[in-house]
TrEMBL record:
Residues 1-83 form the GST N-terminal domain. Residues 93-212 form the GST C-terminal domain. InterPro entries: Glutathione-S-Trfase_C-like, Glutathione-S-Trfase_C_sf, Glutathione_S-Trfase, Glutathione_S-Trfase_N, GST_C, Thioredoxin-like_sf. This is Glutathione S-transferase. It holds the Pfam family GST_N_3. It comes from the Bacteria. Gene3D superfamilies: 1.20.1050.10, Glutaredoxin. It comes from Rhodopseudomonas palustris. Keywords: Transferase. One of its GO terms (molecular function) is transferase activity.
């Protein structure tokens, strides 16, 4: 296959691209990268020196692309598949991209800050930074709750890039800052996303790895 995706089944940003690939029925070869394996880590860095996934390689066009949003934009242009994930009209496309960036910047990245801090030894944890991340997430979740409709998807009635971004961001956000009791529209939206076949497949494939997700440290460890 022309397309190769370097990824890990537990990575939230990899989920975003996987959802897009499954949603559009785009053929690709998955290449699982264990960052704890020096050989696999070196192979990833040879493609993208930053060493983060997802990374897409397109042999047919001799292209290597990092960053989930850019990968999905590339797929929409060169491998559009059975459904468009980015509207063709200018204003809906801008709203879709804005929702994508807002979810990544104000929910997804703060969530990763919180979970990443859990992997640190107690003496190296960043209580101030985690507190700021929680505050930003709460603000963003409040904003998205107000913007979310009682049905449909992130931007109108069509599943889009915005929903590819929302699925992993909200799924993991609910793990680190549970919002179902306080944000009923977002909770219902997350349920719709989890029932979507593309995301359900991603969750099923990630199931064997969920035990690796860092739990919140005990109060004695966090202090």
């Amino acid at each position: 296959m022309s397309l190769q995706l370097y990824y890990h089944p537990l990575s939230s940003f990899c989920w975003k691209v996987l959802i897009a690939l499954y949603e559009t029925d785009t053929p690709f070869t998955p290449i699982l990268v264990d960052l704890g394996n020096p050989t696999e880590r070196a192979a990833l860095r040879a493609l993208w020196p930053i060493g983060k996934f997802p990374v897409l390689r397109d042999d047919a066009r001799d292209v290597v692309l990092p960053e989930s949003s850019i990968i999905i934009e590339y797929l929409a242009t060169h491998y559009p598949g059975r459904v468009p994930l980015i509207p063709t009209e200018t204003d809906p496309a801008l709203r879709t991209r804005l929702r994508d960036r807002s979810l990544d910047l104000y929910v997804h990245l703060p969530m990763q800050k919180i979970t990443g801090d859990r992997l640190r030894p107690p003496v190296s944890r960043d209580a101030h930074g985690v507190g700021e991340a929680r505050t930003q997430m709460r603000t963003a979740l409040d904003m998205f709750e107000a913007e979310t409709s009682d049905g449909g998807w992130g931007i109108g009635e069509a599943f889009s890039l915005a929903d590819c971004a929302a699925a992993p961001a909200l799924f993991y956000a609910d793990k680190v800052l549970p919002f179902r009791a306080t944000h009923p529209k977002l909770a219902a939206y997350l349920d719709r996303l989890m029932a979507r076949p593309s995301f359900a497949r991603v969750l099923e494939e990630a199931q064997p790895y969920f035990h690796l997700f860092p739990e919140e440290p005990a109060a004695s460890e966090a202090s």
